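Consider the tokenized backbone below.
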């Protein structure tokens, strides 16, 4: 059985628990160590193990995160003392790649390192000395990586390949909804017709999106409603609560369980806001967000921004709405001209898409673990180490 040590940036991130579930469903044994964000309580279990808490990091506080990683590196031998010899160390994001470089020397047989990069931080793309130092650090730590896991082809095409950040082969692992039971889902949906409901779910960090959508709902005065769920990023939108409270056709329904609540929350909305200006021109252009797959699986029509990888994804499949300007004026035109027949046509195109586009199955989990297993040292090499 493949033994994986998974080093993660945020133990409370639902995507972390999904990856652990994928690895275990594929036949791996997984130990997890990582940080918590903003004093959130670490889960008591992740998959079949008790996670190892490496401390707290703060959203948007880069210096604090560097200090936390340095402190964790010094304490890593003691923190990992009870972890059995891993075959593979997976490092989720750059700070954990630095820790993986340290952790590999703590075991009698050097594990293979896999770099899981699902976002390209804006500091990595800066043209100043900080950006150059960050990219150099990534190249330095990535030298020992034998595989890159990433969630969008644009990360490879527009960042890793042109910048020569690492020589390892890459495996595309999209942010699909995990379905281990092969469920035949008939998505619950609201009736077509006004008010049209737009859902914006997940990490709510884009101030421009919020302002634009609030403007849309005000101008159409009840013909369009906005439902918000997830975690507001108050460092990015400090007045989030006040803005939502003052908007008559906008409702924030708080956090949700992923995947447990996905069917219910997407079943309340007609459209899925898959737009993010948070790192416009950079990461926001390249990512394929979790909500794209969640909404697609559960029947909410995606709305994307032209020129992004998400828009390319939709165009390749002939689905969704792609906005040229993402202005409130453009949205008012779209929804003023939308009728039940137009919505039904959108929904029919979405319904025709192969469900494998949106979901990762047990066979996908097995393929992932098989790929990882090919990286581990052969028994005779391990014995000689």
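A designed sequence for it:
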């Amino acid at each position: 059985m493949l033994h994986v040590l998974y080093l993660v940036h945020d133990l409370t991130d639902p995507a972390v628990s999904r990856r652990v579930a994928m690895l275990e469903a594929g036949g791996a044994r997984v130990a997890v160590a990582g940080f918590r964000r903003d004093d959130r309580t670490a889960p008591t279990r992740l998959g079949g193990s008790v996670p190892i808490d490496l401390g707290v990091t703060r959203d948007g506080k880069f210096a604090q995160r560097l200090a936390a990683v340095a402190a964790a590196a010094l304490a890593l031998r003691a923190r990992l003392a009870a972890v059995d010899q891993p075959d593979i160390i997976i490092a989720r994001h750059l700070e954990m790649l630095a820790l993986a470089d340290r952790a590999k020397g703590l075991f009698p047989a050097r594990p293979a390192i896999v770099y899981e990069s699902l976002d390209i931080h804006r500091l990595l793309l800066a043209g100043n000395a900080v950006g150059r130092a960050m990219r150099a650090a990534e190249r330095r730590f990535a030298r020992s990586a034998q595989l890159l896991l990433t969630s969008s082809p644009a990360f490879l095409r527009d960042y890793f390949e042109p910048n020569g950040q690492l020589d390892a082969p890459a495996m595309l692992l999209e942010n699909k909804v995990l379905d281990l039971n092969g469920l035949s889902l008939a998505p619950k949906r609201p009736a077509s017709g006004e008010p049209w409901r737009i859902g914006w779910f997940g990490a709510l960090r884009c101030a421009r999106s919020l302002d634009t959508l609030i403007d849309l709902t005000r101008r159409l005065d009840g013909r369009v409603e906005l439902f918000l769920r997830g975690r507001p990023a108050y460092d990015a939108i400090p007045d989030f609560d006040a803005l939502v409270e003052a908007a008559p056709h906008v409702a924030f329904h708080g956090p949700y369980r992923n995947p447990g609540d996905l069917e219910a929350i997407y079943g309340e909305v007609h459209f899925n806001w898959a737009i993010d200006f948070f790192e416009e021109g950079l990461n926001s252009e390249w990512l394929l967000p979790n909500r794209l797959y969640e909404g697609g699986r559960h029947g909410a029509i995606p709305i994307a921004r032209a020129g992004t990888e998400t828009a390319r994804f939709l165009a390749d499949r002939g689905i969704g709405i792609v906005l040229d300007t993402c202005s409130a004026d453009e949205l008012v035109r779209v929804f003023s001209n939308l009728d039940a027949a137009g919505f039904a046509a959108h929904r029919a195109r979405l319904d025709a898409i192969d469900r494998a586009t949106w979901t990762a199955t047990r066979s996908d989990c097995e393929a992932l673990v098989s790929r990882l297993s090919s990286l581990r040292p052969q028994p005779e090499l391990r014995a000689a180490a």
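Residues 378-385 have pLDDT under 50 and may be disordered.
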